[in-house]
Design brief:
By secondary structure, this protein is mostly helical. Helix content is 74%, strand content 0%. The chain is built from 21 helices and no strands. It is globular and about 70 Å long. One of its GO terms (cellular component) is plasma membrane.
Amino acid sequence: MPEAPDSAPASSTAPVSTRSKIIYGLGTGNDMWGNWLYVTFAWTVFNQFLGVPGTLIGTALMLRLGWDAITDPLFGWWSDNTRTRYGRRRPFILVGSILSGLFFPMLFLVGKDWSNTAYFWWMLGSSMVFMTFVSCFNMPYSSLGAELSPDYQERNSIFKFKGSIQKIMEIAMFTAGAFATALIWDNATWADVPQKLAILVSNAFSWLGSMGGALFTFDFAAALSLMATPFGLESGDGGENVNTLLGAQVYGVILGILMICIGFLLFFGLKERYYDKIVSKSQDKIRITETIWEALKCRPFRTQLAMGLSYSLGLSMVGTLGLYATLYYVSQGNLTEGYLWNAGMGLANTVFGFMGPLTWGLLAHRTDKRFTILCIQISGIVVFTATWWLYTPEVQWLQIFASGSIAFTQAAFWMMYGSIGADVIDYDEYENGKRREGAFSACGSYIMKIGMMLGMFISGVTLDLTGFDAELGGDQSDSAIFWIRFLLAAVPIAGLILSFIFVLNFPLTASKMREIRTQLEERRGTV
């Protein structure tokens, strides 16, 4: 039985307030929307609406991540070495949020009659500029998470809040396609936008009221029926002339405004615990080589990276293949209906994903982190095996359960991944005498993204190789449908098995971290 993860000593550290944990968790909105929304939303706009080939889209997404692998180390190193009255992380968080929010709508500022080559270069150029601003936010934001507390258990709590709130913020990712393909945009222009938005808001509040009433009265049949029209969005027959591009542009403006607001909340609502007591007084500057390469000398960090990379590579194709399984297998090519189901799956993803960190966090509180992650991965293998039967046109609502179950384990995995990342940085301080959160965040990010470049590229190439053809709509070949369904299950399972093996070799147990913390506090005092 794994050892109980007692902290040492509990009285030496002021706990992180619930308010601070919630504010930090809200930053996952900027993280998710900045890094990952475009990865799936680009297929809706550029492939399904504008007809850009999957290989071109996959290549653009791959090169976008390649650029991100350059900017992440830059901002990680820069924030490690910054000394201001506001700390070393929060100024970057604020500036990155403002610039990301302002530029977000530019990702979809294209015309309907451009060539495929022009679309490709716009996708690549605009997303590279955007990802520079996202790196400015995300590297300091990720680094800040490891600085909020030195306590083994408190870190579980911080990342439990972060993981649960992240699932709420991810609603915007699952509803992006439903918003952009909503019937409200049928033959719409920018002149119609204020009126259309008013209708959408009214319908959404009405739907939320009905859903709240159904749940309050335990009328689960009515609640399930409402899931087919999330936020009041309705399905057509697939023959409408929906201006998906306009819907995407409006959506980009809305999310951009929210990103700016979140940046201000983070800047004014959080403190940097280690900055005043350690970094600003005695720590030397970090060399750029420490950000790019030297962090990899840390053995626990290498194991953590291998674990996360295997997991993320396995799941990198799920967003695309899962979406296409819904659109072209479950909904038989009716995009409006399919995206409504996808939005409903997003709601299930939020509910189950919100519960995942809370539930698995209870296990982590009673055992060590490594054992908890192993249990999460076993559950994930079971869930992805079940997707073969849960995605079916005969019982369409089963895919909602599939999405929720995936989120239940996925949110818990990344919760624990962040928590052990904070332990790795303590280990590095113990070995080298420096707090290098930015270096580790940046190094981890670019290694993960270089690996995921391959996943993004393979997603586009694989989709083409399955025989999928967007012009065929719901008349895809049986072979194309089979391979989309098969790979949706098989690829994540392979990644989970590989990740499981790496977790077995992770060396930072609860007792080891108690020992490290005691020696650090004897050396430089408490924080």
